[in-house]
Each structure stands twice: as structure tokens, then as C-alpha cells.
Amino acid sequence: QVQLVESGGGLVQSGGSLRLSCAASGRTFRSYVVGWFRQAPGKEREFVAAINWSADNTYYKGRFTISRDNAKNTVYLQMNILKPEDTAVYYCAAKEVGTSNRVTYSSPAQYDYWGQGTQVTVSS
Questions:
Q1: Strand-pair partners of 121
Q2: Can you tell me the distance from the alpha carbon of 28 to that of 104, in angstroms, rounded to the nearest whole number?
Q3: Angstrom distance (rounded) from CA 39 to CA 25
Q4: Per-residue pLDDT averaged across 94-123, rounded?
Q5: Cα 116 to Cα 43: distance, rounded to the nearest angstrom
Q6: 3-state DSSP assignment of residue 118
Q7: Of 58, 49, 60, which Cα lies nearest the Cα of 101?
Q8: pLDDT tens digits, residue range 21-46?
């Protein structure tokens, strides 16, 4: 079992930056791919980025940067030059992959554990 807690969301003006954090606890964070998703009101949950345990393999759909610090059991999403259309609830999720180096998991159904989400609001 892995517990995930997101933080770092908030209200920011268009063009601003935020760094989201996803802190994991429970089972060791090793062997998990961690992904970030977002969901705007009335829309489906959308993949943003994913990273493998060793942080040498990433997968993106968009312009944000994902990173992780395994010593802190934390994954980050750096969001720069934010736009109003980036407004959404941002979720992190974890998928157990064992020793696989694959990181191309972009469907919410592929992930095993989810955080509660953090709201990001970008004003124009």
C-alpha cells in the first residue's frame, strides 16, 4: 500500500510558476512509476507526465517538468508560464512496475494508487 499526498497548489497569475509536490509513504517508493494527472471541471482526467524510479526515464504530454527525490520519497511537477487553461485539480498517482524501465503509462486506469489532489487556479 502506498499513500500519496499532493501539495503546492494555489492561485497564481497567468505567466507565473508553481511547483507541486507528491509525498509518498507506506511501502518503499522503489519500483513505482509516478505520474501527474489533472482534471478540470467537466473534463476527463488528463495525463501530464510520468517518471520512473531512477529518474532517468520520463514521459510527457505537455510543457511541465517532472522530477523525483527518492531520498525524500517525493515527486515534483514544476509548472512554468502557467495559463488559465492549466486550471485544474492536479493528482499524483503511482503504478507498481517491479524492475521494468517502462514509463509510458498515460491512462488513469493503469495506476494503482492516487492522492487526494491539489487545486491549481491560474487567473488571467
A1: 11
A2: 21
A3: 24
A4: 94
A5: 17
A6: strand
A7: 58
A8: 999 987 666 789 999 999 999 999 99
